[in-house]
Amino acid sequence: MTEQTFQPQEHKEALQQKRKLTRKGKDPNAPFVRPKLELPDGHNKLLLHSCCAPCSGEVMEAILASGIEFTIYFYNPNIHPLKEYMIRKEENIRFAEKHNIPFIDVDDDYENDRKEWFRKAEGMEWEPERGIRCTMCFDMRFEKAAQYAHEHGFPVFTSCLGISRWKDMNQINDCGHRAASHYDDVVYWDYNWRKGGGSQRMIEISKRERFYQQEYCGCVYSLRDSNKWRLETGRNRIEIGKLYYSPD
Asked: pTM value?
């Protein structure tokens, strides 16, 4: 979604956060101090499934601040077209390298994975966002992440997908737990990355880092529906690779 789309909600969430702090007797203008996060069952090694730098930026910084050892796992055959996929992936890699975070790039069979994604989406082409097509998409990606976690000694995996207010967090968590349930040695961490101003900081970090500002979820059907909405509301079609966050 565009920054213009985010702006009203972003301002609203910031005001809500300040009011909440005031009610609790805390100074809303005091410097932010990150809480120390703890993984389930006392574990300290995490696999983070990431879809893009804007969604993972706040999640990465929160995990880093808690001293948790983690690796990023990038597997997103839903993202279309290839130009959009490469922009999102390469930006995610740059941000990971900036923080010295290991990055697992799973696109060695990207074209076949894309074909498999389209095969799974057959009959769901006109399903709405947050519908059964999205469930299929999360399942496909999380099943791969859970398998990697199982095979490479990661007792916990999670995803940054839920930080976006455009996503159904319960839907994402259900898919994560379902993927982990196939293995006795893997659990899904369903931490709420939006709470405590997480969604607001996601935007702040994106502006600070001048991240690419994707204007649709990622798949070809999301692109189609976003462009349809834009044309109906008098706006131009999405231009891939054009829009970036700005600190201003």
From this structure: 0.87
